[in-house]
Amino acid sequence: MSAQSLGLRVIPAAVFGRRARSVLERNLFVYKHIWIILFSGFFEPLFYLFAARVGLGQLVGDVRNGSGERIDYAAFVAPALLAASAMNGAVYESTMNIFFKLRYAKVYDGMLATPLGPFDIALGEIGWSLIRGALYAVGFIVVMWVAGLLQSPLAVLGLPAALLIGFAFAGAGMAATSFMRSWQDFDLVNLAILVLFLFSATFYPLSVYPPWLQLVAQLSPLYHGVVLIRSFTLGTLELTLLWHALFLAAMGSVGLAVSAFRLRKLLTP
Amino acid sequence: MKSTHRAAEPVDEAGPGPQNESNDRALVEARGLTKRFGEFVAVDAINFSIRRGEAFGFLGPNGAGKTSTMRMIAAVSPVTEGRLEVFGTDPATHGAEIRARLGVVPQSDTLDTELTVFENVYIYGRYFGLPGEVLRPRISELLEFVQLAERGDSKVEPLSGGMKRRLTIARALVNEPDLLVLDEPTTGLDPQARHALWDRLYRLKQRGVTLIITTHYMDEAEQLCDRLVVMDQAKIVAEGSPTDLIARYSTREVVELRFPVGVQERIGDRLDGLATRSEVLPDRVLLYTDDGDRTTAEITRRELAPESTVVRRSTLEDVFLRLTGRTLVD
């Protein structure tokens, strides 16, 4: 008893980590039964990539990047698809799945009867969606490499970048989910995701927009993710990348804090 | 790490009893404990104290504040006002430590339907930070104890209501808790399942586990509780052992009389002096008396001629209805 309580005070961060890990382990157990579902998230961007390379790529030809260099269209789109798949994976896991566990399965009510607290749960759930996202990102980067779409060894940084995108969207998604009242609310999420997917410099450079629209597009968190990953796979490092990374990190942190606060409010009245 | 899977306090060897020193200190102590949700007062300044090794009951109609009290004890619902100590510590500041030593059986099952029976208990044990090598043998024992050993690989969904409750109890015991909190453990179960569950709870009590039980089944309270409080409208209205409460708020026996249609209304004052207390219900008359046979003899002598006469012992239910009234609370 005394050793444990002392530990709790001395190393709270380690305890949080250990407790959140058990939430993660729970999800691992669940997916042991339905591992096939994990694959679905991997094929989606793959099909997009195929469409971009074989279909659109033939018609579009090359695009010019900021400094006027010509880039193969597939090499231009692929990193954006990686970013979008990181977003989709995180949003799916943190909205629909969390909503089900929160409102119907009462998974968190069970967890809160143990030493776990709302913050551990939020951290564990977001951690899990990051692991899932990492699996997809690794697979996708390997496919890009095989397809010859990586123009720089910096492309390995695409993995942490994809995780950062996942963190940002998982945090925001979970926070948003805590405010949702019914399944209908998820139509709004899908709409938002579609808008982000289409207009975040995913399929064409931001320069095609008039200046005011370019400013609006920069509010899109996916835009920041796309810029990050594209810079890495094309090998164009700039200092401004820090700003994009910071934007995503801040978004995820705020989302995590709001999620923990809302879980406490909802589950321990 | 090691301390997290510490065995239950050594009550097993000492056994529950006054010779055990730790018995003197209350396991749960509440003074002026209050819970409010906005304007609504769910628990209104109640006092109670629960000793180690006893089975303590909270009785009361729906909405009396039992569950709110339980949730505060279980450190999942913050105290609005007053003082609450569990294991001598404050749930507001030591919530995680308190929950580490508690087993909770909530009113509605919170089993993980995406996991199997075994996995449910295993993962729950992991939430307590218990390592796998400790959990595996312990879970076999627990599933044996709740008669679910054969269902380890089964999903949760196809289990019957009684099985789910027993699994919830196995899950609640995985951390070898010092205190087991059960919120209406047998509501909705058939008689066989209820008795099976009572049997398990009784064995736990014999092992020295302290039990806190809420229920609105009087027979359950009489079977399991050493001491109990009756709650009504957010307050505690009585406290004592089941026999104490019967002695204090009821008589030894109750005579139930049924009259032919229309007769009861014309009986008037002819029942006066028959019993310590009488209660006229729409369908029958209850006479609270210490000697049922003398009362029935007197009824015969007065030629009241009821259709049926039943003499029975007083139960907690009589106490409960006297204290909380017969009005339906929804």
Please outline the helices and strands:
The complex is a heterodimer of chains A (269) and B (330).
Chain A: H1 2-10, H2 12-33, H3 36-60, E1 62-64, E2 70-72, H4 73-104, H5 107-112, H6 118-146, H7 158-177, H8 186-199, H9 211-217, H10 221-234, H11 241-267
Antiparallel strand pairs in A: 1-2
Helix pairs in contact in A: 2-6, 3-4, 3-6, 4-6, 4-7, 4-8, 4-10, 6-7, 6-11, 7-10, 7-11, 10-11
Chain B: H1 11-14, E1 26-37, E2 40-51, E3 55-59, H2 66-73, E4 81-86, H3 91-100, E5 102-105, H4 117-127, H5 132-145, H6 161-172, E6 179-183, H7 191-206, E7 210-215, H8 218-224, E8 227-232, E9 235-240, H9 242-249, E10 253-258, E11 277-280, E12 285-289, H10 292-301, E13 308-313, H11 316-324
Parallel strand pairs in B: 3-7, 3-8, 5-6, 6-7
Antiparallel strand pairs in B: 1-2, 1-4, 8-9, 10-12, 10-13, 11-12
Describe this structure in words.
The complex is a heterodimer of chains A (269) and B (330). Helix content of chain A is 76%, strand content 2%. Chain A is built from 11 helices and 2 strands, in the order H-H-H-E-E-H-H-H-H-H-H-H-H. Chain A has helices spanning 2-10, 12-33, 36-60, 73-104, 107-112, 118-146, 158-177, 186-199, 211-217, 221-234, 241-267, and strands at 62-64, 70-72. Chain A has a two-stranded antiparallel sheet. Chain A is elongated. Chain B has 330 residues and is α/β, with parallel strands linked by helices. Chain B folds into 2 domains: 2-242, P-loop containing nucleotide triphosphate hydrolases (Rossmann fold, 3-Layer(aba) Sandwich); 251-313, Alpha-Beta Plaits (2-Layer Sandwich), CATH 3.30.70. Chain B contains 11 helices and 13 strands. In chain B, the strands form 3 sheets. A 6-stranded mixed sheet of chain B has the order 5-6-7-3-8-9, with helices on both faces. In chain B, strands 11-12-10-13 form a 4-stranded antiparallel sheet, with helices on one face. Chain B has a 3-stranded antiparallel sheet with strand order 2-1-4, with helices on one face. In chain B, strand 8 and strand 9 (235-240) form a beta hairpin.
